[in-house]
Write a structure and sequence with these properties.
This protein is an alpha/beta fold and 206 residues long. It has nine helices and six strands; from the N terminus they run βαβαβαβαβαβαααα. It folds into two domains: 131 residues, Rossmann fold; 61 residues, Arc Repressor Mutant, subunit A. Strands 2-1-3-4-5-6 form a six-stranded parallel beta sheet, with helices on both faces. Helix 3 links the parallel strand 3 and strand 4. The longest helix is centred in the C-terminal third of the chain and has 15 residues. Pfam families: Response_reg (PF00072). Keywords: DNA-binding, Phosphoprotein.
């Protein structure tokens, strides 16, 4: 049995779509669906209870607009990846989702059998999107590609703080810090912690 599966939560008001996603994830060894919800009301509580690694977010919900709630979700659940999962294939919506902080943008029209591979790209710290947006999927350079926790840790590493001091000042667990460092290594395209520190000190401006 595959251990330590990554946890996925879907926010989608269409039961058929939720069922399809559940089946697609069940066919993978890396992911499992741990929760599903159909709107913003009560969503934060459900996320807190299930603690997902990835949130699949539809943009058209019963009483909410996914784009409007996305920034607050990123702020309140900084370690959780948020992937927009939608039928909206226009460039304006795509760019607005990227601007709002989405970690990926996947169309429901994509082959569901590719969902697991797409989510793995996100867990590797890279932005994932459907093919038609691939030429525009790169996030803008600079701090906009990092969440607030990552920005804080980048600043501490640039100042030469030890990991023990970073851990104390960030007030997070060792496991959470390890996840952030993995994410940062992916975003800076380096493989080791010393490489990460070096590139932060050399290329990140204060």
């Amino acid at each position: 049995m595959f251990k330590n599966k990554k946890r996925v939560f879907i926010v989608e008001d269409n039961l058929l779509i939720r069922t399809a996603v559940k089946r697609a994830l069940a066919a993978t060894e890396e992911f499992e669906l741990v929760g599903e919800w159909d709107d913003n009301v009560g969503l934060a509580k459900q996320i807190g209870l299930t603690r997902p690694d990835i949130l699949l977010l539809d943009l058209r919900l019963k009483e909410s607009d996914g784009l409007e709630i996305l920034p607050d979700l990123k702020k309140n659940f900084q370690l959780m990846k948020i992937v927009v999962y939608t039928m909206k294939d226009d460039m304006v919506t795509f760019r607005n989702a990227v601007k709002a902080g989405a970690d990926g943008y996947i169309l429901k029209s994509d082959n569901p059998l590719t969902l697991g591979a797409s989510l793995q790209v996100v867990m590797d710290g890279k932005f994932v999107t459907s093919k038609q947006f691939s030429q525009n999927s790169k996030k803008p350079e600079g701090d906009s590609k990092f969440n607030s926790l990552e920005i804080s840790i980048i600043g501490q590493l640039k100042q030469g703080h030890t990991l023990a001091k970073v851990l104390a000042e960030a007030n997070i667990s060792k496991e959470q810090l390890e996840e952030v460092l993995i994410s940062l290594k992916g975003k800076f395209d380096v493989k080791s912690f010393p490489e990460l520190v070096r590139i932060i000190r050399e290329k990140v401006t204060a």
